[in-house]
Amino acid sequence: MSRFVRDLTHDMPPCVIEKASSRALNTVMRLCILAALCASLSTATTEMFTFSVPKDPVSVRLGHVATMPCSLTPSMNAEGLEVRWYRPKHFDNPVLLYRERQIQEALQQAQYVGRASLGLREVTSDGLKGGDVTLKLVNVTLRDQGEYVCYVSSDQGYESASVFLNVTVVGTPPLLSAVRRDADSVNVSCVSHGWKPRPSLQWSDGRQTLKPERLDYSSGAQGLVSAHSWILSSPSSAPWVSCSLVLSEGEEWEGRVDLRNLAAVPETSSGLQTAVIILALLLVLFVVFIGVLYKKRGRESTPVPKGDIVDIETMRQAGVNVTLDPNTAPPYLTVSPNDRRH
């Protein structure tokens, strides 16, 4: 710049040179001040929309209230800003839109109307006045799981950050059943359905953790998980066993079964069972056959005409006297003194 001034004033008179140098220096100073102001404004605009959001996913139980924290750092009044929460690829159909100092329900996704609102990151938060733009979602459903984008904008710029929501489901209480195999061995099974995510299953006899003979998980509708496990236990070593399923602290079920008063179940070989079934079927077929045969014979019998039936009095009138020889008569037949039997 000084060389430029020297070249510009080389052929000028001294008084003119002094005035030209002063003007050039003033111009340079103005340019420097303008550049500094631009840099300052750029830095202020960038720092205004720095967000503070959780790094880990937010977990909430099905049907409960979800709080997805999002706040401006350093804290500032956000009442005059636009706050938009939306799912990826649904910017124009947001979960919640705060603009012109009120919630714009007309643009919300239908499934979030009446459920989404601006909440508080913590109890002591000042809300929008303190730059807290946290999303509150009530009556959480399985469809609510996933990514949510926190977006804040003003005339000077905008910023966005993502928060992830996990929805957990506590399944059914465990159903336990026990079958005695022999004098000192009991087969105990445990079944529970409808968990999300997959729970941990643990057996115990009150003194120690028991290793299951088998543990299986399966997924059903909407990704809900079912658990099935069984163990062999001894009533002489422990009076009861328990089956526990756990997601986290406060999200668990436990079931117990008493092993002391179980009736013994005799084991029957498969061959004997088959023989008993076949014998029962044969007996049923035999009874059916006899019944059919009896009915058939009844239909085939010839009825006696009414006129051929002889009255008992008529038969008595046709009676005759019979003379018997006592020497040849049967010993059980009594013969009258006149050697006749009427």
Automatic annotation (TrEMBL):
InterPro entries to which the protein is assigned, alphabetical: BTN3A2-like_Ig-C, Ig-like_dom, Ig-like_dom_sf, Ig-like_fold, Ig_sub, Ig_V-set, IgSF_BTN/MOG
Gene Ontology biological-process annotations: regulation of cytokine production; T cell receptor signaling pathway
Residue intervals passing through the bilayer: 275-294
Source taxon at top rank: Eukaryota
Record's keyword annotation contains Transit peptide: no
Keyword tags: Immunoglobulin domain, Membrane, Transmembrane, Transmembrane helix
Pfam families cross-referenced by the UniProt entry: C2-set_3, V-set
All copies of domain Ig-like, residue ranges: 46-166
Protein location: Membrane
Any GO CC annotation of this UniProt entry: external side of plasma membrane
GO molecular function, one term: signaling receptor binding
Keyword Transmembrane helix attributed: yes
Name of the molecule in the record: Ig-like domain-containing protein
Lineage of origin: Eukaryota, Metazoa, Chordata, Craniata, Vertebrata
